[in-house]
Design brief:
Blueprint: H1 7-20, H2 26-33, H3 37-50, H4 70-83, H5 89-100, H6 106-115, E1 143-150, E2 160-167, E3 173-179, H7 184-198, E4 203-206, H8 227-234, E5 238-241, H9 249-269, H10 274-292, H11 312-315, E6 318-323, E7 329-332, E8 335-339, E9 352-357, E10 363-367, E11 370-372, E12 374-378, H12 394-415, H13 422-427
Parallel strand pairs: 1-4, 4-5
Antiparallel strand pairs: 1-2, 2-3, 6-9, 7-8, 8-12, 9-10, 10-11
C-alpha cells in the first residue's frame, strides 16, 4: 500500500524509528517533535499497530471543516460572471463586499476563479525583469508624468488619453485628467493646475516625447527647447527624460492598474464622456491613493510656492516670436492680425513681438511686456488639401474637417438617386 505523507509527517516517522531502534531516548524525541512524552508513546503504539499509515493525517483528501457551502460558491461565482468577469480577485472581492455584502476572502475567491478559468495565476505568467530603483525620499522631489491612449470608456465613448502625475516617493496620483489626445496645450493646462494646487516640484520625469524635448539635433531655427520645457524653465523646474519605459516604472505600472480598475469603476458608474470621467477622477484618486499609496521616507515636502513668480497664465501659454511688417501685420496659425494704428505701434514696424496663445483660445501680442491692441484681418476659412497644420491645432482642424465632410455627404446623399437596397444598407451604416 502506498501512503501519502507530508514532509513534516515523514520527519516525524524518522524520529519514531530512531526511538524504536533504541538509538534515541523518548525524552529527546519529545524535544525534537515538540510533543509530550505521552503523545510520543501514543504515536509509537500506532506505528507498531498500523505502521507508517498511522502518522498520515486522517483529514487528507476530505473537505475542510471551514469550507464554505456550495450554495455560497455558486451565488458568488454567478455574481462574478455577471458583473466582474474580467476583474482580478482583489478588486472583485472589494466590489462584492461593497456592492453585494458578500464577505468571501480574496484568497478563496482567487482559488474559485482559477478553478473556473477566470483568472491566471501569477506563476503561469511570463516574468518581468527590471532593475529596481530606490524611491525619492520627499514628496514633490520627482514627479513622473505620462499619458496613456486607451479606450477608457470601452465601447460607450471615444478613445482618449489619460494624463497622470505620479509622485515617485509615494506612488500616489497627485493629478490626472482625460484629454482627447496628448498635446502640448493639454500638458501646459494640466501642469498649471498641478502647480496651482501643490506648488513647483523639483523635477518632472517623462519619456522622450517631442512635447518634452527636441529630438532632432539638426532642427532648423528655435533655441532647442520645447514650449513645455520653456514653461518649466520659467518656473525653475527641471525636466528629466527617461531612456526606457522601464525607467519610469511607477507611472507605467500605475497605468496597468488604472486600465484595469479605473475602466471597470467607470463601467459600474455608467461614465461615457471625458467631462464625466474628469468629474469622477478626484474620488477615484483618493480611493486609489489610500489603497496603493506609500509613506514617504521624509516628512518634508519638496514642492516650492509658485505665486512669487510670473503669472501662471502667461507661463503655461504657447509663445512664439514674429516680426511685424511695415504695415503692422503679423501672421500666426494661418491667421493675419493687424495692430491698431497709434503712436506706440507705429514705431514697431520690423520689430520682434511675442504672440501668446493661451489654452482657453484667446491671444495676446506683446512687446517689451506691453500688450498691443490688434484686430483680426483675415481668418482661415477653409483647410486646403495637404495643408500643413500645427500639432497643437490638429484637434480643432480635424473637427472642422469632419463637420465640413458631414455637411457635404448629407447634401450629396439628398441629391443623388438611390439604387435598390442602398437605403437599407445606409440604415445600418455605423456612425
Amino acid at each position: 500500500m502506498v501512503v501519502s505523507m507530508s514532509e513534516a509527517e515523514f520527519s516525524r516517522l524518522n524520529v519514531l524509528l530512531e526511538v524504536r531502534s533504541g538509538r534515541l531516548r523518548v525524552a529527546d524525541a519529545a524535544d525534537l517533535l515538540q510533543l509530550g512524552r505521552r503523545q510520543v508513546f501514543r504515536l509509537l503504539g500506532g506505528l507498531r499497530k498500523d505502521g507508517a499509515a498511522s502518522l498520515a493525517s486522517k483529514r487528507r483528501g476530505k473537505p475542510s471543516n471551514n469550507q464554505l457551502p456550495s450554495a455560497v460558491r455558486e451565488l458568488t461565482m454567478s455574481l462574478i460572471k455577471a458583473h466582474y468577469a474580467d476583474f482580478g480577485p482583489t478588486l472583485a472581492a472589494e466590489k462584492l463586499k461593497e456592492n453585494h455584502a458578500c464577505l468571501v476572502s480574496r484568497e478563496t475567491l482567487r482559488k474559485w476563479m482559477l478553478a473556473d478559468g477566470l483568472w491566471i495565476d501569477r506563476k503561469r505568467r511570463l516574468p518581468s525583469v527590471h532593475q529596481p530603483r530606490n524611491r525619492r525620499e520627499r514628496t514633490g522631489e520627482l514627479i513622473q508624468i505620462d499619458g496613456s491612449k486607451h479606450y477608457w470608456f470601452e465601447g460607450r465613448g471615444p478613445e482618449c488619453s489619460l494624463l497622470a502625475y505620479i509622485d515617485d516617493a509615494t506612488s500616489q496620483i497627485l493629478h490626472a485628467a482625460f484629454v482627447p489626445s496628448e498635446s502640448t496645450l493639454d500638458y501646459l493646462r494640466e501642469t498649471r493646475a498641478y502647480v496651482e494646487r501643490y506648488g513647483r516640484p523639483v523635477a518632472f520625469y517623462s519619456d522622450k516625447h517631442s512635447i518634452f524635448r527636441v529630438n532632432h539635433r539638426e532642427a532648423a531655427g528655435g533655441n532647442g527647447v520645447t514650449q513645455f520645457g520653456r514653461a518649466l524653465s520659467e518656473l525653475n523646474i527641471d525636466i528629466i527624460c527617461a531612456n526606457s519605459p522601464q525607467a519610469k516604472g511607477r507611472v507605467e505600472r500605475s497605468f496597468g492598474t488604472l486600465q484595469d480598475r479605473l475602466v471597470k469603476e467607470m463601467r459600474l458608474a455608467g461614465i461615457s464622456t471625458i467631462a464625466a470621467g474628469n468629474a469622477f477622477l478626484p474620488a477615484f484618486m483618493a480611493s486609489y491613493n489610500a489603497r496603493f499609496g506609500k509613506i514617504a521616507k521624509s516628512d518634508q515636502d519638496a514642492h516650492r510656492p509658485g505665486e512669487d513668480l510670473a503669472p501662471l497664465s502667461d507661463v503655461f501659454a504657447w509663445k512664439e516670436e514674429r516680426t511685424l511688417t511695415n504695415n503692422l501685420t503679423i501672421q500666426y496659425d494661418k491667421i493675419l492680425f493687424m495692430l491698431e494704428d497709434n503712436e506706440v505701434t507705429r514705431r514697431l514696424a520690423r520689430q520682434r513681438v511675442t504672440i501668446i496663445d493661451y489654452p482657453d483660445g484667446h491671444l495676446a501680442i506683446r512687446h517689451n511686456g506691453r500688450d498691443l491692441p490688434y484686430r483680426t484681418f483675415d481668418k482661415l476659412q477653409k483647410v486646403n488639401q495637404a495643408a500643413i497644420v500645427e500639432n497643437k491645432r490638429l484637434g480643432e482642424v480635424l473637427a472642422y474637417i469632419a463637420e465640413q465632410q458631414k455637411q457635404l455627404d448629407m447634401s450629396r446623399s439628398a441629391k443623388a438617386p438611390r439604387r435598390r437596397g442602398q437605403a437599407e444598407r445606409h440604415m445600418f451604416k455605423p456612425t
